[in-house]
Amino acid sequence: MLGVANDPLMGAVVAGAWGLLAGGALVIGATIAWFVQVPARVVAGVMAFGAGVLLSALAFDLVQEAANSAGVTPVVVGFAGGAVSYMIVNKLLDKFGARHRKRSQNQQPTETERSGSGRAIAVGALLDGVPESVVLGSSLLGGGGISTAVVAAVCISNLPEGLSSAAGMK
Question: Rounded to the nearest 5°, which phi and psi values hold at 2?
Answer without folding.
Answer: -100, 110
